[in-house]
TrEMBL record:
It comes from Ibidorhyncha struthersii. This is HYI isomerase. The gene is Hyi. PANTHER family: HYDROXYPYRUVATE ISOMERASE-RELATED, ISOMERASE. Transmembrane segments: none annotated. GO terms for biological process: glyoxylate metabolic process. InterPro entries: Sugar_Epim/Isomerase, Xyl_isomerase-like_sf, Xyl_isomerase-like_TIM-brl. Residues 2-170 form the Xylose isomerase-like TIM barrel domain. Keywords: Isomerase. SUPFAM superfamilies: Xylose isomerase-like (SSF51658). GO terms for molecular function: hydroxypyruvate isomerase activity.
Length: 187
């Protein structure tokens, strides 16, 4: 699996004015990349990144057509490209910031999801840090949906790496799993 970046709106450009051209270029590039990736049995991932905090110029910012309806969005692009080896990389941090309603978004876009990433909102720290998201609920929802892929931890640990994975040990214990068991809860 490899993240294929969508690109950034050029400095000084009006997002609405360049959206169509950027979508056309990105769609063509994805078709080309999908063919190359298929030869290697690889999956290409498209990740919407919030443009409120993380990158105001990134061209994909929600999994669906946004309220402003001016930038290419991931689900529509994946449908337009129509390649089975292109999937949605859903980063719950970005999704919560841009749209919220994670349960509905996970259920709606589940067939497109090729990878999940997590971080607490708003601080982008460990899942058990104070914030808006209930990760035990999210993990149970992913299990109920039948998600069997990896969950990437894309957060800034408050301390060292091992300390920053304390939440995972607690989660495994709450589920009756051994430390480091067979779960794919972290990569």
């Amino acid at each position: 699996r490899i993240h294929l970046m969508a690109g950034r709106v050029p400095l000084g450009a009006d997002r609405a004015a360049v959206a169509g051209e950027m979508e056309t270029t990105f769609t063509e590039n994805l078709r080309y990349a999908a063919e190359l990736l298929a030869q290697e049995d690889m999956i290409g991932l498209e990740e919407p990144i919030n443009n409120s905090i993380t990158d105001p110029r990134y061209s994909l910012n929600t999994p669906h057509q946004g309220k402003a309806d001016i930038s290419p969005q991931t689900a529509a692009i994946l449908e337009k490209v129509g390649r089975p080896n292109l999937k949605l990389q859903l980063d719950l941090f970005h999704c919560q910031i841009m749209d919220g309603n994670l349960s509905r978004n996970l259920e709606t876009y589940f067939p497109l999801i090729g990878h999940i990433q997590i971080a607490q909102v708003p601080g982008r720290h460990e899942p058990d840090s104070p914030g808006e998201l209930s990760f035990p609920y999210i993990f149970e929802l992913l299990e109920s949906l039948g998600y069997t892929g990896y969950v990437g931890c894309e957060y800034a640990p408050k301390g060292d790496t091992l300390e920053g994975l304390g939440w995972l040990r607690s989660y495994w214990e709450s589920r009756g799993l051994q430390h480091g068991g067979t779960s794919k809860a972290a990569e």
